[in-house]
Amino acid sequence: VEDTTDEMQELLKRVENGEDEVQEQLKRLEKGKVVPDLIKELKRRKLVTKEKVIWYSLKKGPEFVVKRKTLATDVTREHLKSGDWKDLEFKDYNYEAQGQPIAIGYSQPLLEVREAIQNIFLEMGFSEMPTNMFVESSFWNFDALFQPQQHPARDSHDTFFLKAPATTTQLPDDYLEKVKQVHQSGGYGSKGYGYDWKRDEAEKNLLRTHTTAVSARMLYKLAQEEHFAPNS
């Protein structure tokens, strides 16, 4: 009842039970009853907003455990002492795993020093000896360097003799005879070793044990030249 003037006014119901239609629409929408036209109207009136919701359903898998167990990767001394190795479960090997990257491409100080010294000698006119012949005869590897055939000094090398070809026939007979004489009876101020030097032993092929054998070959080769002169 509203008193605006001296007169009394009475407000009367137009319907018996009043219903809020918008409220009912929102309740139906909350229950999942979607009406496209209704949603458009509610969105226009900014009574509802559209949100994207992602939900997941999780179930126990075949390997589900309440407490995770650490798998072993190696058998240690402690495992063997305690006997735990009997109950260990090992992690599967991953054969596709990548190894640690190899550190390559770095400068090596010793190689730099060697190259610097090498360039000095090359600029002075020296030339390098060919060292790519890895199979050598016992003559150049030992006899030409005056190591006795029965001396233990030969055993100090990691010597591997060849089966095929087991021997060589490319030895200079004149120089071989001189080396033989020095071994047996001496010469050039030496008394020799005083033993029976055998050519068969000198002809045996082996994997070259040192590059000094190349030096012996080169000295003999240079001695055959009529005039020796350094390379320009």
Description:
This protein has a domain at 135-223. Helix content is 31%, strand content 3%. The protein contains eight helices and two strands; from the N terminus they run H-H-H-H-E-H-H-H-E-H. Strands 1-2 form a two-stranded antiparallel ribbon. This is phenylalanine--tRNA ligase.
Entry summary:
This protein is 31% helix and 3% strand.
Task: Report the structural category.
Answer: mainly alpha
Regions with little confidence, pLDDT below 50 for 5+ residues? none
Oligomer: single chain
Q: Which band does the percent of strand residues land in?
A: under 5%
Lateral strand order in the biggest sheet: 1-2
Spell the H/E element sequence: HHHHEHHHEH
Shape: elongated
Radius of gyration: 50 Å
In total, the number of strands is 2
Helical content class: 25-40%
Mean pLDDT: 87
Query: First CA to last CA: what distance?
Result: 131 Å
SS field, number of helical segments: 8
* Biggest sheet record: 2 strands, antiparallel
Keywords:
232 residues; two-stranded antiparallel ribbon; 2 strands; 31% helix; metal-binding; aminoacyl-trna synthetase; protein biosynthesis; aa-tRNA-synth_II/BPL/LPL
